[in-house]
Amino acid sequence: MTEAWRPDDDERRGALGPVRVRVPAKVNLHLGVGPLRRDGYHELNTIYHAISIYDELTARRGDTLALTMEGEGTGELALDDTNLVIRAAHALAGYAGVLPHARLHLRKQIPLAGGLAGGSADAAAALVACDALWGTGLSRDELAGIAADLGSDVPFLIYGGTALGTGRGEAISPVLARPTSWHWVVAIADVGLSTPTAYRELDRLRDSGAAGAPLGSTDALLGALRQRDPRVLARTLGNDLQDAALAMRPALADTLKAGEAAGALTGIVSGSGPTCVFLAANAADAERIAAELTAAGVCREARVAHGPVAGARVG
Ligand code: C5P
Q: Is 196 touching ligand 1 by the criterion CB < 6 Å?
């Protein structure tokens, strides 16, 4: 009698079929930028918020590590070892002591270089997907620890929701708020902005005395998140990088004005820009504002979204 075929230990661990992970974009409801540190990063005091614009990463078993993609940024984004998804897979494999073998496919809806942490989201998705594929069984906190070495925003996208980020943005504590869904309009620009350049521009504006006063504490925003009134929340949103984004891309002022003219409660630049996000009073207003912004020609595309939503998740 021949012995029944048995998968080896490695193959028995983890998923045999494909693992699909959905990961959201982030906006910063409050982005307080402190001084430049000796390591080249700025000290941050930020409130991250995950919104319902998603990338999707599918991981399958393979004999090597390979990445393919479709959607936003196809043809622009390098798929080699410089890609954060590949770096994330290597980092997890190194940590867990497994071979970094997987066939990864990315479906991108989050724009590149938009201030929505698209690249960081994909790295978070890769950690969660490969952990499930390889059966390495790490906790979210362990994945967030690996994530911090990949980029300042990556740990937040492992958790999602609404959270305080300190340090260079990688130290995350959840914000306990009432279960409210906020309605956003996200105005995406034709051409992205570089994050390091936006930070350098802020330093230059501050050195020359041309930057606005830095944001204060997050207390007002945290108080507003505990209430259910978007008008109260609107008064507390702020971004220290907004002056830098507007200096580099003056036309964003027209986008912000157009959103408010269309009925948004307020608009801010998201992260290092150039995406602008607008808070709407309700879902119907958000739809109308998005249509008006698209028709006004002040952005490539306006999408509605809600938040907070969960971080990178299998399913
Ligand atoms: O951490 P991440 O790789 O996403 O950061 C990209 C760049 O943004 C950094 O190299 C740095 O120039 C800038 N940055 C910063 N301070 C932070 C986060 C990012 O100056 N807290």
A: yes
